[in-house]
Amino acid sequence: MTIVIDVEEVSKQFKIHHERSQSLKERLLHPKSGSTEVFDALQDISFRVSTNETVGILGHNGSGKSTLLKCICGVLQPTSGEIRLRGNLAALLELGAGFQTELSGRDNVYLYGAMLGLSKRHVDAIFDDIVAFSEIEHFIDTQVKFYSSGMYVRLAFAVAVNVDPDILVVDEVLAVGDERFQAKCVDKIRTFQEEGRSILLVTHQADQVRALCDRAIVLDGGLMIANGPVQDSLRIFREHLLEDAVFHDRIGHQADVAIDSITTPSGSFDVRSGAGIHFDVNVSSQSAYSGNFMMEIFTRGGLLVSRSDAHASPVNLKPGLNRIGIDLPQIPLLDGVYDLNVGVVDHHGTVIAWKEQAASIQVTYNGREGGIVELGASIRQL
Ligand SMILES: Nc1ncnc2c1ncn2[C@@H]1O[C@H](COP(=O)(O)OP(=O)(O)OP(=O)(O)O)[C@@H](O)[C@H]1O
Ligand SMILES: [Mg+2]
Fold first, then answer.
1. CATH fit for domain 3-244, picks 3.40.50.1000, 3.40.1170.60, 3.60.21.10, 3.40.50.300
2. Closest ligand 1 atom, CA of 63?
3. CATH code, 248-364
4. Residue to probe by mutation, ligand 1, list 13, 14, 169, most atoms within 8 Å of CB
5. Residue with CA closest to ligand 1 atom 12
6. Which atom number of ligand 1 is nearest to the Cα of residue 68?
7. Model-level pTM?
8. Does the C-beta of 16 come closer than 6 Å to ligand 1?
9. pLDDT tens per residue, the chain (382 residues)?
10. Residues 200, 69: contact at Cβ < 8 Å?
């Protein structure tokens, strides 16, 4: 196996300028006022990728994933460290970091080909395949700025996979396309794997990492905190997500009602063992409220898994502390981190108190089913 990507002690700093003076007049009088802060987006990152390896890159928003990919693709210059590549690289970076939006799709295909060192004749030869894969033939002569994000990704992916790269770099954008196109991209990635190409894949979807990657890297605040087997990296990624989970209040419709503390069993839930969760709702006035308790469970990707019936769980809130318990006799979810939103809604459907991302639960599932729900199906031949 040959090393095709060699990242050695790479750091990237951004300079962020803070304006001190707000008014235009002040800015004209003191153009250099304000301060410059140096921000470490990547710190001392080293790893290698070999031929025929697919490596996932995980990390929450702002952890440095896109910055790392941009350094690898040469869009950004690392502040220090070195990156060596072997072979051609084709990249699908974040939306907006690829095409010239004033140009048409057609012109962008030729421009991108030229950037990769392909001759016009070579691009002519693959042009129809690119358009066919993207399925946007009607828009190929439209300026890219009028593309929807899905169309943009279709064309970008079609170009990237048709220029015969040794290394394919994909930044999350797969999540933008519709489900059918995503499946087509995943098929193409599988073909690339069979052909022995190397792939770097940034994604927030744990099951995609599990399905496609040989290994995964986890970034956290610009540091590499894991680089190893997919299962290990996913666990480390989750633990960090839970630690950093943002707990914030949404609309407190009644200023005197607040959802205070949440108690969830620590660690991860086993699918079969169920869980009990407690919430404290504090009424800080002498008023009493009655309504229904509500709960929503979301995947980290923002998909609503379940919303409780707004009329099914009556609660009476008295002045002071009210404790509410939720019993989940079993959690028919598969491996993943799920966010809970909780609240109390009065009989007219008005939200009295609400807490977004009030708690996160981590579910560990060791079976082989994919997706988010455990159906417990038994399949037999009839
Ligand atoms: N050109 C820039 N100038 C200043 N700061 C930047 C620049 N590009 C990125 N950053 C900062 O660097 C950090 C890492 O950003 P990056 O886009 O790499 O995160 P990411 O892991 O890709 O996040 P996401 O999951 O949201 O795509 C962020 O705090 C971001 O604000
Ligand atoms: Mg990014």
1. 3.40.50.300
2. 21
3. 2.70.50.60
4. 14
5. 41
6. 18
7. 0.66
8. yes
9. 899 999 999 999 998 877 665 677 776 777 666 677 889 999 999 999 999 999 999 988 889 999 999 999 888 999 999 999 999 898 877 665 677 888 899 999 998 888 777 889 989 999 999 999 888 888 999 998 888 888 888 888 888 888 888 999 998 877 776 778 888 888 889 999 999 999 999 987 777 888 889 999 999 999 999 999 987 888 777 666 544 433 333 334 567 888 887 777 665 666 567 778 888 899 998 989 888 888 888 887 667 788 887 778 899 999 999 998 888 887 788 888 888 888 888 877 677 887 777 788 888 777 777 788 888 788 899 8
10. yes
201 CA distance to ligand 1 middle (Å): 17
Helix axes 105-115, 120-134, angle to 10 degrees: 130
Measured in angstroms, how far is the CA atom of residue 162 from the centroid of ligand 1? 28
